[in-house]
Input
Amino acid sequence: MKISVDVEMTPEEMRKLFGLPDVEAFQRQLMDDIRERMVAGTEGYDPIKLFQPYVTGTMASWDMFQKMLTNAASMSSGGTGSSSTGSDVESSPRRK
Output
């Protein structure tokens, strides 16, 4: 059985329904800050330095995510090679 429901909502109504914060003022402040930095540094405009304060935290979280995936992959690859029960289970007949 497949059931589908169509709901017409504005993004603001959806945020309120799910209890998400209204970040419009924060986004506006962020864009104003970026615009001021761009205007102030037009001669020596360096986009890396402009976005560095905003990207630093994001990059740290990506590094942690990458380490977590690496650890998970090394744990799963280490466990599958030593176990011989996996092939026995697959070759056994299934009961219905």
Notes: DSSP finds four helices and no strands in the chain. Residues 81-92 have pLDDT under 50 and may be disordered. Residues 46-76 form one domain.
